[in-house]
């Protein structure tokens, strides 16, 4: 295979053909005339043509140089366009489906506002929210456009961004016997609780904190989603522990009361992840910035730093 020529010669050739002189091309390229003269010698060898020849007191383009001139200009313009950052997306003209992965709590408090902003700013963008499954970050290499929620350890080709740290709160039915109580650890432990788990686990950091106080709690049932847990408590006197933002949204549309959890519990990092190939994509950048803006505007949903991790 014939080796490629030095592509750094292309801008100099363009300058020489447009200026029609070594001095003029040297001034445009900010090099000395002697350096440009050496570049012209190299170009002559590469092109197999003199390109510029003496004519009176100046130089003239050869027929080959005149033939090359528009092609050189087009090639240089194409190369520069390929290396230039993409123009800002005209969002009103974008037609795109984005596949997001999120649990039901995230879909509930983030999805409606995200969809509303898309309808206003980018009506051709359609959001496809998929439920959590195995949470394999490798899915971001093809199947998933954006992962939103608690992020696992990410591979080298996946970007991650922490957007907030959320606490958890307890919800119970609004007409329940302790809907207006300020719970103590002892009272909290004495109440039946619905936990949310996709794997059937009933032990979490909540139980660890209670055990440190010599307390245990009763878990009469587990639910696979936070939405299902809310329906459990609507038909019982139980509590359910849910993310603070979801608790606020659920209480807005369901007859639920929201209570603080009287334990020193860690908060949970909430973020988004995407494959590096989307870093500079204008529409994807809009999606990420809009998710971040929605999360920022929503706050933590609790007004408190307390929180819990589900099992």
Order of helices and strands: HHHEEHEHEEEEHEHEHEHEEH
Helix tally equals: 10
How far is it from the N-terminal to the C-terminal residue, by CA?
60 Å
Strand residue percentage: 15-25%
The main β sheet shows up as: 5 strands, mixed
Which parts are unreliable, with pLDDT below 50 for 5 consecutive residues or more? 302-311
Mind explaining what this structure looks like?
It contains ten helices and twelve strands. The protein is an alpha/beta fold and 311 residues long. The protein has a five-stranded mixed sheet with strand order 4-3-5-12-6, covered by helices on one side. α1 crosses α2, α1 packs across α4 and α5 packs across α10. The C terminus is likely disordered.
What topology does this entry show?
Blueprint: H1 9-19, H2 22-29, H3 33-47, E1 52-55, E2 58-61, H4 63-83, E3 96-101, H5 104-121, E4 125-130, E5 146-149, E6 158-166, E7 168-173, H6 185-190, E8 193-196, H7 205-212, E9 221-223, H8 226-234, E10 239-243, H9 244-253, E11 256-259, E12 268-275, H10 282-298
Helix pairs in contact: 1-2, 1-3, 1-4, 2-3, 5-9, 5-10
Search tags:
five-stranded mixed sheet, alpha/beta, disordered C terminus, 311 residues
Q: In a nutshell, what does this entry contain?
A:
By secondary structure, this protein is of the alpha/beta class. Helix content is 40%, strand content 20%.
């Amino acid at each position: 295979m014939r080796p490629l020529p030095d592509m750094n010669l292309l801008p100099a050739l363009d300058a020489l053909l447009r200026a029609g002189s070594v001095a003029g091309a040297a001034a445009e390229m900010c090099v000395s005339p002697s350096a440009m003269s050496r570049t012209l010698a190299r170009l002559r060898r590469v092109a197999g043509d003199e390109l510029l020849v003496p004519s009176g007191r100046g130089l003239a383009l050869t027929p080959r140089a005149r033939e090359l001139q528009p092609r050189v200009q087009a090639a240089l313009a194409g190369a520069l366009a390929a290396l230039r950052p993409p123009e800002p997306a005209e969002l009103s003209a974008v037609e795109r489906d984005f596949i997001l992965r999120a649990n039901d709590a995230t879909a509930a408090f983030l999805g409606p506002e995200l969809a509303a902003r898309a309808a206003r700013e980018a009506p051709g963008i359609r959001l496809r929210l998929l439920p959590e499954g195995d949470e394999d970050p490798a899915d971001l290499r093809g199947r998933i456009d954006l992962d939103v929620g608690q992020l696992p350890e990410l591979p080298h080709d996946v970007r991650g961004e922490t957007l907030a740290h959320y606490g958890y709160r307890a919800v119970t039915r609004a007409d329940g016997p302790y809907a207006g109580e300020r719970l103590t650890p002892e009272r909290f432990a004495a109440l039946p609780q619905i936990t949310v788990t996709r794997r059937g686990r009933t032990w979490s950091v909540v139980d660890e904190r209670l055990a440190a106080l010599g307390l245990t709690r009763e878990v009469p049932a587990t639910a696979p989603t936070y939405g299902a847990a809310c329906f459990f408590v609507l038909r019982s006197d139980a509590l359910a522990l849910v993310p603070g933002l979801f608790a606020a949204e659920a209480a807005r549309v369901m007859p639920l009361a929201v209570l603080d959890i009287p334990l020193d519990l860690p908060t949970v990092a909430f973020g988004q992840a995407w494959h590096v190939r989307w870093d500079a994509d204008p529409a994807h950048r809009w999606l990420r910035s809009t998710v971040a803006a929605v999360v920022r505007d929503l706050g933590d949903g609790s007004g408190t730093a307390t929180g819990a991790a589900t099992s």
